[in-house]
Amino acid sequence: MAFKLATRLVAWQRQHGRHDLPWQNTKDPYRVWLSEIMLQQTQVAAVVPYYQRFMDRFPDVEALACAPAEDVMSLWAGLGYYARARNLHACARSVMQDWGGRFPPDAKRLATLPGIGPSTAAAIASFCYAERIAILDGNVKRVFARYFAIEGDVTTKPVEQSLWKQATDALPTAIQLKRDPDIMTAYTQGLMDLGATLCTKHQPACLTCPIKKDCQAHIQGRTRELPWPRARKTTPERTTGMLIACHQGRILLEKRPESGIWGGLWSLPEVQSDTPVEQYCDRFGLKAKQTHSLTPFQHVFTHFRLTIFPVIAYLGSNRFTKSQIATRTDRLEWITVKDLHTLGLPAPVRKLLKGLLTDNMLG
């Protein structure tokens, strides 16, 4: 069964799989690693422009390692899950400092680098070094849960361990690898392609699937049932107020701490959402001649939903400097409106400010 799986999957991938993604057709571990990190919990269509911009700005691991953290965060802004960007930078520096500028040549050692887990390490090793090793990202879990009819929540440890065993047992054999040195690239990419294009979460295209003859979910008529859905949890609700302080073509921004939500990005100063409008500016030692409450809006994170209550404030004619701001002065800066696009801003903040610029409200 495993032999048939590899044989059919490889043949399908070479004829029908994806071959024109910008990080394919290379054995450069830097390019493969960058794409794998970006693709974690993010769709291919969203990743492509970010990947291309990163490659233009940081063409190799040395360029990325030497770049200021703020430049890295600025290019990453909008892609989400910002810990990935911080780990990306830390990993590049580790490769330069600890590995002489070369990525480790096997999955075991790749997995010791910041931000590289077992599946990502395996993907890099498989694509770049032809290592015979299993991957198990979200799409692949779905493929194997259906193919082997594995029940249970695939995010739980016991089920995940079962999936790892099946994924390892399903690898091309050593004999296949000897006969076809590129088989691991086609096999690994085939699993990714199958999960992304045919064996999708909703309405899988079983009729055109290359492995349907032995897929237990297809045989048993359980493709809609498997994999089991994750237990639903109530999404926590949070609120925050954001101050948009404007003065002579400048906006007051605050650099967020390196850890936590939007770590290392520039954002709008926050206050408690129930703060009266007139106190928004007082919170930062500013005096406004005019304030307006804007329409609240929501931003959904993986683990909670955030409702943002923005207030725009136009300051008086006197010029306020950072030294005159009463609180958190080490992280607050006046940024000119024309320079906003150069900074790493959280997606909802960037969207909010872009809308205000379009409406000529930032003056």
UniProtKB/TrEMBL annotation:
Function statement: Adenine glycosylase active on G-A mispairs. MutY also corrects error-prone DNA synthesis past GO lesions which are due to the oxidatively damaged form of guanine: 7,8-dihydro-8-oxoguanine (8-oxo-dGTP).
Database matches in NCBIfam families: mutY
Cofactor comment text: Binds 1 [4Fe-4S] cluster.
Obligatory cofactor(s): [4Fe-4S] cluster
Keywords linked to the UniProt accession: 4Fe-4S, DNA damage, DNA repair, Glycosidase, Hydrolase, Iron, Iron-sulfur, Metal-binding
Keyword 4Fe-4S assigned: yes
EC supergroup of this enzyme: hydrolase
SMART domains associated with the record: ENDO3c
Keyword Oxidoreductase annotated: no
Organism for this UniProt entry: Sheuella amnicola
Pfam families: HhH-GPD, NUDIX_4
Residues in HhH-GPD domain copies: 38-197
Regions crossing the membrane: none
Protein name: Adenine DNA glycosylase
One Gene Ontology term of the molecular function aspect: oxidized purine DNA binding
E.C. designation(s): 3.2.2.31
Gene Ontology biological process terms from the UniProt entry: base-excision repair; mismatch repair
Catalytic activity: Hydrolyzes free adenine bases from 7,8-dihydro-8-oxoguanine:adenine mismatched double-stranded DNA, leaving an apurinic site
UniProt superkingdom: Bacteria
Family: Belongs to the Nth/MutY family.
